[in-house]
# Entry
Amino acid sequence: MTSELTLRMNSSILRIRSDSIGSILSGLRTSFAGRYIPSFTITVGDSGDPDAVIDWMSAREGFRVDEIKINCYPEYYRVVSAPPAPYINEAPYFFILQVLSRLSTRRSQIVFTDTVSFLDEEGRAVMLMGYPHTGKSTLTAIALSKGYIPLTTENTVVDTSSGDPVVVGGTGILVYDPAIRQLYGVDTPVHEKTRHGYLVVDLDEVVPERRKYLERGVIIDRLYVLHCSFSSKGSDYKLIKGRKIAKTLWYFATALVKGIDYYEPYPLDLATTEVMKTIGRAIKDMSAKYDGRFYEVFGRHDKVFEMITSMK
# Structure
């Protein structure tokens, strides 16, 4: 018997229909889902008019997309998949993230991948971008340990509909290397550990006020691209200028919808003209706004954090 659940991320609504809805629901309630899918709520059953519908055909293992219709409303996807499960069947999480990113972009709320953000001392958002293993989680853990409020931990939803880009959502599960507890004196609550021994923190448990900030939105004051390593000493920075501003923003703003962020067997390309034009307008506006406030930073994590928080 087919049942339904409704997943909401900000204003975007995704309906999933399946005869294994209970297993899907269990998979979406794991911390793994919260590591990658920006803050979302789940309602069992029909709730609101969906922007997209997924018909989920059960399978014993694996994941594949059999049908997509994205030039209609609601959009439609048909998948054949085992339930989402950490370490076992992770592709569905990233597929759902990709679909939600597309829906969100249609509302001028762009999901910037590989980004974290936190509040500075003046209540403004600082957004940090970086490829894997360049220091995002470590700097977020340092920020949390020093009393700052982290807003997002992996993917950041930025509303670009007004003159000021605003953080309105994002992932809230922080996963970091336990080595930094001794190396940098990081001390945070720990809610679980990953299979590989990394520490997991649910920010909503530690800093519940984070949700209130996201609900009203926080203006982004400045942007950074991280290049941190444990073997570095000190810190340094350089201003990102000219065409490189738009080029850098473009990558982090389009990676999800274009399928650059890999999942098995291969990602979809959901970058229709409508969506890319929306991102293009946002990148043009952000390029002008952050000219003079967009930096590449290099060095040891704790020194880079000190430098970033001292810049105004």
In short: The two ends are 57 Å apart (CA to CA).
